[in-house]
């Protein structure tokens, strides 16, 4: 009996991805990167029970590999810093709660090592030492398997592989403009600009000839920054809506393709049936008495009367070499009943017969 097909693909699981996104969204709502806050959410959602209920060791190993790959996906760009921290904590939790012995390692591709090192440097600069501690704990446990590719290479791919969705709310956004708006930098820039204009007006010699800055610099700059923030929010929200509509459109297209395939198959079946019916209608039906018909007697000069069944032709011997030669030379062949291989036989037989009779006469005398 062949093994049962696994309900998840080689790269990700839809149900597990939804649970992971729920966990990361709660961690993002906590507005913190501390491991204590993450562990509290982990225990509330009982994420350690995700590996329970799998009986076969091969299936457990495959599901563990998929779980670690899902956590690794959120640990790498283009997600925001907080989501990447949540992905690191998630890898730590999945690795130490798995039931496979020996434990399954975390695949880290060589192309992603640079991004991981930059992430660790940024964490150290920001003073997030618990992030570096968790990563070093995984390194000390030899949890990482440095590979050339993030997933196992398979030559037999699915015809319609599952799409790995990307949550737009987890993506990293440009926060430099928000920092400028939130801080008092614009007010300080306005004060500096006013002081510069006063110094310029007090100097009579260069007051009218030199113009190095734009008048009213701060208001247009603030307007541009607010327009950028509004555009960014609108773009991300529109992107999320487009993703939902794209998913719905893909589902509709799949349903439409299924209907078209069913219609094509039904039309093909009906066409084959019509062809078969036409072919059987044109087939001549023999009567039941055909098998009991009497054979006709055909007379032939060489072999006498033979009984040949009706509908079959008698096999005829091809013409001899002599006949074909005469025909090619244009010599008419004389019709004779004497067989070709007996042309010289009568003279010999006649001489033999005469000698035999003369001997008998001498013996009688």
TrEMBL record:
Stretches with biased composition (Basic residues): 354-365
An MF annotation (GO) of this entry: sequence-specific DNA binding
UniProt organism field: Takifugu bimaculatus
Biased composition (Polar residues): 269-284
Region annotation (Disordered) ranges: 235-339, 346-365
Protein name as it appears in the record: snRNA-activating protein complex subunit 1
A GO cellular-component term linked to this record: snRNA-activating protein complex
Superkingdom of source: Eukaryota
Single GO BP term: snRNA transcription by RNA polymerase III
